[in-house]
Design brief:
Helix content: 40-55%
Oligomer: single chain
Radius of gyration: 19 Å
Number of strands: 0
Shape: elongated
């Protein structure tokens, strides 16, 4: 896996995990001011979710990085020739 491919794979893994982590602990505000959306979260905690996502994505990418060169994944099943 080259450096550019590795970066792209990491970014895709990070965004997938981030989108899965977004709904964790979200509670809508009980009282909303005029002009605010009623379903917007009161405390979205995006920095905490980004930090947790970075840790999980790093571990997931490291495991993938170990499995690909070791031929532990059966890529031959997907080849047509």
């Amino acid at each position: 896996m080259g450096i550019v491919t590795g970066i792209l794979v990491y970014v895709v893994i990070w965004w997938l995990i981030f989108f899965m982590a977004l709904p964790w602990g979200v509670h809508p505000a009980e009282e909303t001011d005029q002009g605010h959306q009623w379903g917007a979260p009161e405390q979205p905690r995006l920095l905490l979710k980004a930090a947790i996502t970075t840790g999980i994505a790093t571990v997931a990418f490291y495991l993938l990085y170990l499995f690909v060169p070791a031929d532990m994944l059966q890529w031959q099943l997907f080849k047509t020739s």
